[in-house]
Amino acid sequence: RRRLRDVLSRQRQVESQLREIKSDRADAQSELAAAQNRAQSARDRANAANRRLKDVNAILRQVKADLVETEEELGEHREAMAARLLALYHSGQPSYLEVVLNATSFEDFANRTEFSRLIARQDESLLDALINTQKKLARQRQTLEIRQAEAAELKREADRQKRAAEAAEAQASSLVAKYKSDQTAAEAALAELDRAEKSLEALVRAELSRGSYGGSSNGRYSWPCSGRLTSPYGYRMHPVYGIRKFHNGVDIAAPAGTPIRACDDGKVICAGWRGATGKTVIIDHGSGWATSYGHCSSIYVSVGQVVSSGQTIAGVGTTGVSTGNHVHWMVYRNGHHVNPLG
Ligand SMILES: [Zn+2]
Questions:
Q1: How much distance in Å is there from the Cα of 227 to the middle of ligand 1?
Q2: Is the model's pLDDT at 201 over the cut of 70?
């Protein structure tokens, strides 16, 4: 009965833990939504910066291509002009330079140069236009190169902000996942406690209907199994539920099938599946003392059987809520668990 009250009080404890987890989870969920918004706007900014950089790069490529073309035209035009002057020279007509150098007066210069000047003027205006275009394109290139550097810097900064926002988003998301699994574990723990309560009630009823063991015990017991003590009696972090939970026995780790021996004379009052402790044997030793052996792989005794101290009753296993082969060994005093080593 007292053990039953114990189960009920632990149930209330886990229920309050569950409420706390649910509120933490709601907080984490809204933090995640905020982080997702921040990450989305950071991604939008990074995309816009990237598009702007691409646009500037495209214009710059076009201006550079135009500049190369203009420089080629300029070169071709200069060559053509030189070829024309050379042709005039070879045909015996005075070259523009000779005309300028040999003129004796302005009238003479004007007459001599009538023809040459017409050609030269056309050449020069074309040349001027090309040089102007070249200068304009060079200025454009300079401006665009500055804009390109600015856009690249903007993109780097936007990418950095995007990465930071996405890291925060991932962190918030993993926090939500953690609270979700905490909640699942707490709910499983509650369900398990619920089953423990029911099976305990059934056990007490069965025990009462059978009549308990007549022998006497002093509560001093031999170690039930050769193995290593891996978890003592008392509060601990539960290895499966991940919550702080009272450990109501001691865990002795040993390979699967290692014999588990009755730690005193007594009568078997439970030999079968008992929820969280899986396949379990409970022995009534009389005088209000009982011992329990949980997570067994197989059980060699049956309810009502009288066993003697040291008799093999089961094999070590990992049935029920367990992370490896071990015996969950418990000692009951008047139906209330006590420290098996205390
Ligand atoms: Zn245990």
A1: 14
A2: no
Question: Average pLDDT, stretch 262-266?
Answer: 93
CA angle 267, 272, 278 (to 5 degrees): 125
Do residue 236 and residue 136 come from a single domain? Answer: no
Which residues lie closer than 8 Å to 212 by C-beta, 6 or more apart? 267, 269, 284, 286
318: in domain: yes
Ligand 1 centroid from CA 237, angstroms? 12
Q: Give residue 250 CA to ligand 1 midpoint distance, Å.
A: 5
Residue 156 shares a structural domain with residue 226: no
Distance 200 CA to ligand 1 centre (A): 17
Residue 203 lies in a domain: no
Distance 244 CA to ligand 1 centre (A): 13
Tokens of 20: 């706390």
Using DSSP's 3-state secondary structure scheme, residue 170 falls into: helix
Range of the domain at 173: 2-188
Same domain, 11 and 133: yes
Query: What does the pLDDT read at residue 124?
Result: 75
